[in-house]
Amino acid sequence: MDAFPIPAESFILGFIGAGKMAESIAKGVAKSGVLPPDRICTAVHSNLKRRDAFESIGVKVLSDNNAVVEYSDVVVFSVKPQVDKAAVITEEAFGFCCCRSEIERPSGLQRWSRWVEWTGHSRFIRVMPNTPSAVGEAATVMSLGGTATEEDGELIGKLFGSVGKIWRADEKLFDAITGLSGSGPAYIFLAIEALADGGVAAGLPRELALGLASQTVLGAASMVTKSGKHPGQLKDDVASPGGTTIAGIHELEKSGFRGILMNAVVAAAKRSRELS
């Protein structure tokens, strides 16, 4: 089987699983121009809202998962790991990409070997995106497995790079990656909501408080990624002696703010191991 050529418009991309994540990635790929929507497909069985969501992008909605596999050159398995294999035809684990020519019936072992046994194919790339892919700001990590080639990696990197930033990492790190960037957006949503609630408690109108909280988190994240400074240094730059910021930081430290976030990542990583 020859490696897939670049540019990306030469192939058809299929999604097994038609949930929010698959929709976000398909939308980002199409919006970025990496691949036209008529070269993207998925299967929706009975959920009309899901069908409408993909058709509104211009994505082809096929009859079943087998049709997706037969029609596509690159298949993205976008199904949560706890989904029963009996409920689908050729998918099980969330966030796997397969650069493939043929996929057969499942049987199973463990991690990569399980996938090779299950599909009769070894050209897999595991990908962990997160929900900000919907707005082109995903944090995505991929790991090449089996006989996946560097050209396959470049292709998947181009696809997922169209919806944010992408890194490579060893497969053994993916549970921790899930706990941090996979689940992390939910932690930040909670933080934004809490900041806005604090603003309301201090007397701000709700809409203004939410807007300020959201933009503050966005701006702070941009400073970390663009300034090259350690976040601790950026924090110190804001916290003047005896000022308002250090008073707020003191309250966060008394409540164990950093420890709580660390514990959340570790708990999510542990749950990821249990599910896999």
From TrEMBL:
Keyword Glycoprotein: no
Residue ranges of domain Pyrroline-5-carboxylate reductase catalytic N-terminal in the record: 13-84
A GO molecular function held by the record: pyrroline-5-carboxylate reductase activity
All residue ranges annotated as the Pyrroline-5-carboxylate reductase dimerisation domain in the record: 171-275
Pathway: Amino-acid biosynthesis; L-proline biosynthesis; L-proline from L-glutamate 5-semialdehyde: step 1/1
Signal peptide: none
Positions bound to NADP(+): 16-21
Domain of life, source organism: Eukaryota
One Pfam family it belongs to: P5CR_dimer
Binding site for NADPH: 65
Enzyme Commission number: 1.5.1.2
NCBIfam families for the chain: proC (TIGR00112)
Family: Belongs to the pyrroline-5-carboxylate reductase family.
The protein's name in its UniProt record: Pyrroline-5-carboxylate reductase
